Amino acid sequence: MKKLINVPNAVVDEMIEGYVAAYPKYVKVLPENKRSVVSVETARAGKVGVVIGGGSGHEPAFMGLIGRGFADGVPVGNVFASPPPDPILEVTRAVNGGAGVVYMYGNYAGDCMNFDMAAELAEMEDIPVQTVLVTDDAASAPLSQADRRRGIAGGFLVFKTAGAAADQGYTLDEVVRAARKANANLRTMGVALSPCAVPQTGKPSFVLGEDEMEIGLGIHGEPGIERGTLKTADEVTDALLERILEDMPITAGERVVVMVNGLGSTPHMELFVVYRRVAKRLEDLGVSIHRAFVGEYVTSLEMGGCSVSVMKLDDELIRLIDHPADTPMYVQQ
Amino acid sequence: MKKLINVPNAVVDEMIEGYVAAYPKYVKVLPENKRSVVSVETARAGKVGVVIGGGSGHEPAFMGLIGRGFADGVPVGNVFASPPPDPILEVTRAVNGGAGVVYMYGNYAGDCMNFDMAAELAEMEDIPVQTVLVTDDAASAPLSQADRRRGIAGGFLVFKTAGAAADQGYTLDEVVRAARKANANLRTMGVALSPCAVPQTGKPSFVLGEDEMEIGLGIHGEPGIERGTLKTADEVTDALLERILEDMPITAGERVVVMVNGLGSTPHMELFVVYRRVAKRLEDLGVSIHRAFVGEYVTSLEMGGCSVSVMKLDDELIRLIDHPADTPMYVQQ
Known about the structure:
The structure is a homodimer.
Chain A: H1 11-22, E1 27-29, E2 36-39, E3 49-52, E4 54-56, E5 73-79, H2 85-95, E6 101-106, H3 109-124, E7 129-134, H4 155-167, H5 172-184, E8 186-194, E9 212-215, E10 226-229, H6 233-247, E11 255-262, H7 268-284, E12 288-295, E13 304-313, H8 315-321, E14 325-326, E15 331-332
Parallel strand pairs in A: 3-6, 4-5, 6-7, 11-12
Antiparallel strand pairs in A: 1-2, 2-5, 8-9, 8-13, 9-10, 11-13, 14-15
GO molecular function, one term (chains A, B): kinase activity
InterPro entries (chains A, B): DhaK_dom, Dihydroxyacetone_Kinase
Protein name (chains A, B): Dihydroxyacetone kinase subunit DhaK
């Protein structure tokens, strides 16, 4: 697959250079690790520091979401690979305003290991750290083992919830509580239509036939739960939504956020066709959509397909989801 | 190529239904044509109405850009095809707040014909209409025939300029003057790496070899000026930027806006690698980048590749480009 890059091994560093050059009013790189990207404000006194992260290749997540009402810092990993503890720790020190730091990332072994190690090092420097794992991918494990589930696009909503809570002056315990509630109220189901290729190999991450799709496929090409013939958008959407509703029943009168996330190469046109069906189905159930997110929030390079996320809301989550955000790649008034 | 759609002929209507369902606080459809999309505010008294448009398949353009500080209405055409006069006229009536209406679109024969026809009909109803053609694509005709050039991604910046001017209370003549200045100060050069497929045929719009790129290719697959072997991101960026600077010299001390626009399937990672090189080259020339736009602004479904736009600024254009915008698919504070 064609890539507009220079040297494959330099692509992440060059991306960060370009990103910081494009948005110098928002972000900067710390001195020790060129993968430590933080808000130009760094620590805000008394505010919980919000660190999100994971591998690169998911832009706008994670690096694109640094700013008021969202994240304070992002240690950037290689493509689809966790950042090592060093940049995580450097970012942690920089964004700690005395109220502690929350780590949030998708539930992947590499991220867990490296962020946990950084948390231990930070605690030794008397920086309180707590962790919220995102586990929204309903396809990746049964409900009885929900803590084994992967984190995928819905993580955006968990990060936004926590970023808003921190901006509103919540304590570390309260930020963590709100973010965990968001995660518990959230389910995502994805469908893949075509693969991506990491720059190092240039090879497709998986192979699907010309008329095939795979439901539940992970954002790094991890196996899904059902491979089949590509159906109509309405049929695919119904299949995704039914899995979500089986896993997390929603009753008439409840309020939700819906996200239809493009994985990289699926046109916005198709995302809106999918959203149309989600909206219709939820309306038929008497469920009220408080806010919609349709676009690219957590991508997998040029992967084709999308995911549908539904998050149930209470008054607190509504207030946090509605809180403004101002980042280079996501602005909400 | 795989599409997440229902019936090909219904995809535009279903996209609009999904879009309006997702953003009911911003947009609505008018009663006569289901392709007439306008701001929920419709006409604002005394403000020039801003109508942008053209075919669909370019989302976020054009439909995604309806809101304060940007467009007031968009007649939506079929994929890569101009809207007919009817929805243009219906939108025009709805957004006319008594100060007249400006039409802005890329310079394509179909759009010119249909928008001109609508303008004549509007004038018969005593609605003053003026037109600004976007002609930013430096590859599509020599400078001596600049009025024959196509409009591509840079149109976003012309629309934004006019939308801001209208929001600031400019008269119709003044909005048109500012938008034409933006267009005159703007050049775009694109490179295509892979094709898109319109839903009706599902067939690739053009064919490029596994290691080929084409510089200057249009956003509907129109021929470019140079097909060659895919080079490094820096080499490709240099080639695009050199064409722009040959066509529109920029000297040390000048201020510009830079846009690196993804055509649909090119990862943000690569767009930032390209931006990095543009920023470096302009910095070396002593040119100051006032604001950067890196992302998907004007797409061509799932086409691969990107374009680089540079717009020279004066104090007025800076004030207009910095003016806030609040639309479903583009927010600027």
